[in-house]
């Protein structure tokens, strides 16, 4: 991103992390839940935060990585909440990243 | 002096309308209370109830009912019947007492509003009896629940529930404030007596009475059957009101019926659904919730509205699909968030109980079985901690119940999907499409904030599970827990369990 210097507002990456409460659903769970994350969290951390409340508790844990789906798109694991443009009260789905059957 | 025959007086004694000479009609029947809308004022002269009753008749009948219901109570009070009831059934009654006692009182206010602002003297007369009925219902329900406080502190929530910020209480207040207290009397007559009372109270009062008798709770059956006998009379206010409204404003009539039916269906799926399909002991279940809904609610409701020239609501397919889903998801939610309840929810998913569920709901295993299995394996691994909540379920912005309604994908899998709406700079989430649609149409109304909204706004402190339970008014001696984990997990003991949470080291 190119900073034109036209405004004095700091970019998300330069500000203190801000709370981003999310509406989240983990895989095949039966209910949406409230999961607070911050603008500085990566997608891997978001996936873990959502999974914490469900995995092995209502949905059987699977030996795969997890991916955050936001607005129908798979988000890269190292992308932050701020960079992904995820806002407070947005919805995310966390899915197991199951490799395609060969 | 010769007395007049009944048919000679029953018409004019109810005709207490006159033409106002000192004030405008609008001053006596202001639009925001009386709500005539597009209906010409004179059209209400045709309002007539089919079953007429005089005050002496009313008092004589009610006196008999009261004497009977309290006589049975007094006799049973000396027996040990209560001690023999199952925990599941006791939970069904605790839900009922807490969820219903003060709704009956809210109904007093609704009837009083119609008794004052109803647009015909006969209507106001009937509403006067109606408010006396509801006062009796509030009193009898509160009194019957109070009897058990000494035996079980959770019964204290008979009176307490509606004064707390428990999420169930907020959900019910949200529904009934709109249906009974903030609406005008035309809408009240259609929402409360017609849709709610002739439609849904049958479910709670007839179905639950049958389950109560089967479960050995004669006192509870006695109480709710006595209450139900009043409904038939005062629920008459709905029919004549709807008839006149349909003639002059069918669009409004359809909307008011649709909205009230949906709100009632959501609330009953939370209260009556788990009580019928889980809390009532298996051997005492008469019908499944779905079967009862189909026989007693759906056929009757569709017949009634078609009789008045209305159509099935726009959400009908979504509602019918929900009969296999809503209350099962809510039951799991109530159980998992059990510390937020004033009853002891039993999971009721032993092998026999699951076989019954699958017989009644063929998709049950596919949608819920895997989740219950993980919970069961955690219980059998002595990891109860993994079965307790550490965050809030997301609560629908319209019905305030958890967003837990799975729908089937084209590939056959069942998933809970996000149903959202951006409005006025905010992102709202809903449990169903119809809840979103109702929110959108009613968006200018003042809506209650859900517990999630309150939590995020910092109204709940400290911002943790303890803070949330304190905010809801739950105290340790009342907080819900499963009364008998072993009852529904022993069938599965010893089976291999993979992929479950690891118990924290103490």
The CATH topology of chain B is given as Ribonucleotide Reductase, subunit A
CATH architecture of chain A: Roll
Distance between the termini of chain A: 39 Å
CATH topology of chain A: Ubiquitin-like (UB roll)
CA radius of gyration of chain B is: 24 Å
**Overall residue-averaged pLDDT value of chain B:** 93
Largest sheet of chain A: 5 strands, mixed
Question: What's a quick, concise take on this entry?
Answer:
The complex is a heterodimer of chains A (102) and B (506). Chain A has 102 residues and is of the alpha+beta class.
How would you characterize this protein structure?
The complex is a heterodimer of chains A (102) and B (506). With 102 residues, chain A is α+β, with helices and mostly antiparallel strands. Chain A has a single domain (16-87), classed as Ubiquitin-like (UB roll). Helix content of chain A is 14%, strand content 27%. Chain A is built from 2 helices and 5 strands; from the N terminus they run ββαββαβ. The longest helix of chain A has 10 residues, at 43-52. Chain A is globular, with a radius of gyration of 15 Å. Chain B has helices spanning 6-9, 25-28, 31-34, 55-77, 87-117, 121-146, 157-160, 167-181, 185-214, 218-234, 238-248, 250-279, 289-307, 316-322, 326-336, 351-360, 364-380, 433-441, 451-456, 465-471, 485-489, and strands at residues 406-408, 414-416, 419-423, 426-430. The model of chain B has no long low-confidence stretch (mean pLDDT 93). In chain B, strands 1-2 form a two-stranded antiparallel ribbon. In chain B, strands 3-4 form a two-stranded antiparallel ribbon. Chain B has 21 helices and 4 strands. Chain B is mainly α and 506 residues long. The longest helix of chain B is centred in the N-terminal third of the chain and has 31 residues, at 87-117. Chain B has a single domain (57-492), classed as Ribonucleotide Reductase, subunit A. In chain B, helix 5 (87-117) runs parallel beside helix 8 and helix 12 (250-279) packs across helix 15. The chains are: A alpha+beta (102), B mainly alpha (506). Chain A binds chain B through residues 21, 23, 25, 28-35, 52-53, 55-62, 87-91, 93, and chain B through 329, 332-333, 336, 367-368, 370-371, 373-375, 378, 386-387, 389-394, 402-404, 406, 413-416, 418, 420, 426-429, 452, 455-456, 498-502.
